[in-house]
Amino acid sequence: MNAQKMVRISLLVALAAVLSIIENQFTIPLAPWLKLGLANIMTLLALEMYGMKAAIAVSCLRSLIAGIFGTLPMLVFSFSAALASSAVMGILFNISRSNFSIVGLSVIGAVVHNATQLFIAYLILKLSISSLIFLSPFMLISATVAGIITGLIAKYLSKTINARQSES
Fold first, then answer.
1. What is the pLDDT of residues 56-80, one digit of tens each?
2. Of the candidates 16, 53, 56, which has an alpha carbon nearest to the alpha carbon of residue 37?
3. Cα dihedral angle (6, 17, 146, 9), rounded to 10 degrees?
4. Could you list the residue range(s) of the whole structural domain that residue 126 is in?
């Protein structure tokens, strides 16, 4: 890996960690676990610019860094969901770049992220199946909305970055 690529990936990790830490400061009283997932914008950019390994690195390192400022349970939920969602997005990106837009990958990543967190809650917190069934539609809807928003932002940033790179 060349130095320029390493620096850019490091910047994406740092930006993702900052976005995650800031976003964790704002909670919704009835659903404190509900987040937009702004840090995932950096994961999407890493995926598009450098591929699956970089996206997993950005996502997982962001989770670890942000976890330092949170709690151990938050880290377990965040890290496992970050790993699963970035891996699925990376696999789909590698299999068929032409069939999935960055927005589509973002939605899929958000859904996998929420599904993984529900699964971890089931395992660790012994969440009941009825609770999972009750929470699943809400989590699916919120993941879809969040995925669209973060995907659109990532699409805009990607176009801006590509335009600036072609100018220089």
1. 999 999 999 988 887 777 888 899 9
2. 16
3. 0
4. 3-167
